[in-house]
Specification:
The protein is of the alpha+beta class. It contains 5 helices and 9 strands. The strands form 2 sheets. The protein has a 6-stranded antiparallel sheet, with no helix packed on it. It has a 3-stranded antiparallel sheet with strand order 6-5-8, with no helix packed on it. Helix 1 crosses helix 3.
């Protein structure tokens, strides 16, 4: 008896199909509707739907608008997710200036759809800013790694020390301030991403 050769599946997904499916994945992860993305980009819902399905590939200018609405860079649309563990050494990362006498470092890749995490370092007296701020509609966890901070959420002020944590919605005005007259290090975990 002659055996048939094993069947193989060939993927016909083009780069534009990959971009479309990446856009859809990201939009859904951020809990955005086509209408919301259309409103923020000035593009029609129908065109965005066709872009997500790979019917249209979109110009670079169009992809820039859509990526910005989804809190991505255009290059992120062409980067395939790498599910391999990625080690990042904190001492190798500069981060960026944040708030008053603070520095923030992204720990998760920008392409993550469901979680983003940051380390924040505040010098003595440093804070996220003079006024409370809000961003997105995400769930947020703040863990104090070292030092002491005051966390204001809404009208309530909480004083937290090492390994204390607090959860809140990122849409609620909040502020973090170093409170021990020394350096404080904190960890933010936000889901879905809102930066």
């Amino acid at each position: 008896m002659v055996k048939s050769p094993p069947t193989t599946t060939v993927s016909h997904e083009s780069e534009t199909d990959g971009v479309g499916s990446r856009l859809r994945q990201r939009r859904l992860a951020l809990r955005l509707t086509l209408r919301q993305v259309a409103e923020s980009t000035g593009l029609s819902e129908g065109f965005l739907s066709q872009l997500e399905r790979g019917v249209h590939s979109g110009s670079i200018a169009t992809l820039q608008k859509v990526a910005a609405a989804l809190k991505l860079e255009v290059g992120d649309l062409f980067t395939l997710p790498d599910n391999k563990p990625a080690v990042r050494r904190f001492t190798d990362q500069r981060g960026f200036s944040f708030g008053v006498m603070g520095r923030k470092l992204r720990l998760t890749p920008k392409q993550f759809n469901h979680l983003e995490a940051f380390i924040g370092v505040f010098e003595a007296g440093g804070s996220t800013g003079v006024e409370p701020y809000s961003h997105g509609e995400s769930e947020e966890l703040l863990l104090i790694v070292s030092g002491e901070v005051e966390v204001t959420v809404g009208e309530t002020v909480h004083r937290l020390g090492p390994l204390d944590s607090i959860t809140y919605m990122s849409s609620e005005p909040h502020r973090v301030r170093e409170a021990g007259n020394d350096t404080a290090t904190v960890l933010w975990a936000i889901a879905p991403p809102s930066y």
